User: What shape does this take?
Amino acid sequence: MSFDAVAQQPKLMYLLQGLAAFAAVVSVILLALHRAPVRRRAAALILLAPALLLLTVGLLLPGLRTLALSFTDDGGDTWAGLDNYVWMVTDPRALVVLRNTLAWVVLVPSLTTAVGLLYAGAVVRSRFRTFALSLLLMPMAISFVGAGVVWKFVYAYRPAAVEQIGLLNRLVVAFGGEPRQWLVDSPWNVMFLIVAMVWTQAGFAAVLLAGAIRAVPGELTEAARLDGASPRQIFWRITVPSIRPTLLVVVLAQAIGTFKAFDIVKTMTGGQFGTGVIAHEMYDQAFRYGETGRGAALAVVLFLLVTPFVAHQVRARRRTG
Amino acid sequence: MTCVRERLASRAFTAIAVVIAVLWTTPTLGVLLSSFRPEEEIRTTGWWSVFGTPRLTLDNYAEVLSGGGNGSGRLAEHFVNSVVIALPSVLFPLVLAFLAAYALAWVDFRGRDALVVGIFALQIVPLQMALVPLLKLFSEGWLFLPAWHLTGPARFGQVWFAHTVFALPFAVFLLHNVLAGLPRDLIEAARVDGASHGTLLLRIVLPLARPALVTFAVIQFIWVWNDLLVALTLSGGTAETAPMTVGLVSLAGTYGNEWQRLTAGAFVAASVPLLVFLSLRRHFARGLLAGSVKG
Assistant: This one.
């Protein structure tokens, strides 16, 4: 079956309808704003009403309902108390998920920040800074799903008898090793997923850190240089301490993003072979196995885990300005 | 002595940078080259052998776009879906958040500060927290809200709704920061001249807020285009309404070893965000930081 242009027309019609309906709503708002006496509360209400309505119906109430669902079973029909939470800390599969999430949240921010810091420090004074940073940032535009495909290809496995098409196995064979199924053999397969995540995030860290390094006063490094400090000493003793606030922001941002990592797991293993993480397991439980209560409980735990990081992040961001 | 040491150290730094840059680009290069190689060759030899026997073809792209032989792929349809999903999902939150941010920044009313904090706090809520009830709302209705029972293209409505809602806290946060920072004299002067809120909003605030609006639009577009979770749960999963990411994941799942489709598909999906990234890189980096807390 080839691409059918005619079949696309209803979609485009629907798009136009949607845009027209939205334009009508906005016109009504602006008109009301124009007509109504400019009483402050009335104006504020008119402007805020659509956003507040959407947030209430689409985020606030569903969030509270998820909290309630996490204490139920059978799609919300029977009260289950803390069963879903007990399941999470006793079921072997769920425990693997928690273990993996811990590994992700410890390793991804630290590796990403380390790579980003070294790279930023190396290219920040270079003529090719912008280009060099773009190289690292590009995986982010490719998307997590794209990154998953890219790394699946790197890890591709074929039996030892035939030529390897995956880069990693090719290198292993070149050094006299046996080809392995990197994404299948637990628990190390978790590490190979983490590598893909680090790959997508390092550019973000490098860009932010390069910006911070450039803002370090030149007199500071210059003075150290005149005192005979080596570039390495200047980097570790002057530059890195000066950008500590930004380092904290980067690490926290990575941690927050890592908790929600879903796409890479879904694309590369689908959570099989003991590679699940909370964000992915939540999807599986709620939408594939119909275990709404367990899915909701996982979502609640995710929320509780992320919150302190976000609170810390908001404080850290206020300091860096 | 110092000079030699200095040069060595800076050379070590350069070496590190080159190693990282190579590690970071090689995997992409491999997929890019493979996407142009004939199917039998991808299956039997590594992509690096293309340098020895350069035989390139566009067949993979033709096949994955229109779904050759066994009807898989059809990424062209998913591509249309992605466009239909992305445009309103960027525009709706942009406009609504702009209106809300203006009210929060420049209209005095009681309870304003509490409302600002409340909306900002909603950024924390991961979208996983809202997905199950949202799906129930669409299929069964809830409280006073009727079921939507959307089918066919109308499913796009669900996805627009979800993306708009999930983007709003971050968008309001970003735009409020910018609007609140506008010079008070300017706004007051316009008010003294008798400008209504409507005039203020469109004639004075909008032009000044344009860079922030572009930043949000860029980051939201990339976010929506690359989104998988909302798409999988709310878009229905068929070529009729599901976006590119869903098409690509199902390729990776069912045809896990059909690299000719996967490699070409990955680049079809990435082409649009890559273009946006290359042309609007400054906004991209700025937006990423601003959105690092988003749920």
